[in-house]
UniProtKB/TrEMBL annotation:
PANTHER family per UniProt: BETA-AMYRIN 28-OXIDASE-LIKE, CYTOCHROME P450 26
Family: Belongs to the cytochrome P450 family.
SUPFAM superfamilies on file: Cytochrome P450 (SSF48264)
Name of protein: Cytochrome P450
GO biological process, one term: isoquinoline alkaloid biosynthetic process
GO molecular function, one term: oxidoreductase activity, acting on paired donors, with incorporation or reduction of molecular oxygen
Residues the record lists as binding heme: 410
Keywords for the protein's UniProt record, in alphabetical order: Heme, Iron, Metal-binding, Monooxygenase, Oxidoreductase
Cofactor(s) it depends on: heme
Metal-binding keyword on record: yes
Amino acid sequence: MPAAAVGGKLPPGRMGWPIIGEGIEFFRAGQKGVPEKFFYDRMQKYSSEIFRTSLVGEAITVLCGATGNNFLFSNERKLVTIWLPPSIKKILHSRTDHQRCSADEDETKKFRQLSNQLVKLVNVGLMDTIARRHFESNWDNKKEVTVYPLVKNYTFSLACWLILSIDDQDRVNELSKMFGTVMDGIMSIPIDLPGTKFNRAIKASKLIRKKLLSIIKQKKITLCSSSSSENIKASTHKQDLLTQMIQFTDDENNCKFMNEMEIAEKILGLLLGGHEPPTVVITAIMKYLAELPDVYNEVLREQIEIAKSKAPGELLNLDDIQKMRYSWNVACEAMRLATSSQGAFRQAITDFTYEGYFIPKGSKLYWSGVSTHKNPEYFPDPEKFNPSRFEGNGPAPFTFVPFGGGPRMCPGKDYARLEILVFMHHVVRRYKWEKLLSGDEKLRFTPLPLPAKGLPVRLQSHPHQF
């Protein structure tokens, strides 16, 4: 018997074509730089609160607006839990659904603990040192650069150092290329045939795991050859995240060692999440600062004041980061217009009703950041770049959600904030820049918002050292 007959009225909407559903319309809207149009058209046609569609081969119920975000965030593990499309699982995980399903919550808990440990490892001075080295090697003495690949080099190199202690640029570049293939596949149509992006991504993820397993084995050999386990444990907080993962201890101090494949999979996820979203945000910031000289000048003024308070050669510290209020407002406005997280999937773990509609157990749901970020009800004149939106108390709750919310809010938020602000501190003090392409190089959401040509710019060094 249909679920609607048992439990009540299902949300309105349409399923589109067999198998592909409304995926083509969804991807077309993103390619045109207006992913929100997919949601707004259906909110207008069916309901401003909820509608059904078909994406990633599944019937999906979309909860819209701040109310929908609040409902899903606040009912995590009560009514809903995380869900990943099978295509993404196939790329990122080596184990089967049967092997994973019984331990999903424990897996997620471990991942969040490890993500939090990564944040604790971050030293602002170390990040500052790596940023300085990055600019000296890749930007200085160049008249023209393409922003996106250079920023990706910065964020991925930083993640490799903090997670794996890899500082060899050749090894970093090798891994980065494979991760690029994985990301292309995640964002492609999931057709597993030889030569497709999806198929290449599956192969690349297997190769990444193989290389990570080799790194893990070597790390274990190094740890075993150290003086004593007690000395190792005492110095763990000073070492990379891989060391901590090998010696992982849960909250109750009961030692639970993960096997090598578990560690490899978690590193794969951390490296992917630790560099791709910040890369997107920094690239968007560079785009908007090139287009808006008044905003650029205000960021520059703030960063010069911070630089003037430092002794020659003194590295940035956490107090300096706290002073970058306007710069962070700029970053937030860039995330509002070009959010790297358009939304996320959930699955109902019990029957429930929402806005008078029946949601059966097992239903796939989706919360959408773009359904609020460009909604004039929450952000007047939504296409205008206006950092003042984030002054004072900022936007209304659950309207600005680039890091999600609730128990599953992105654990890397503080890490991303440091990474972005340290980069901004250096880039504005070193250069002014202008876009090389005529017209506006629009951001295309695939689903990450990226400039079509990678944002090539002409650099102009400041005439004096700040």
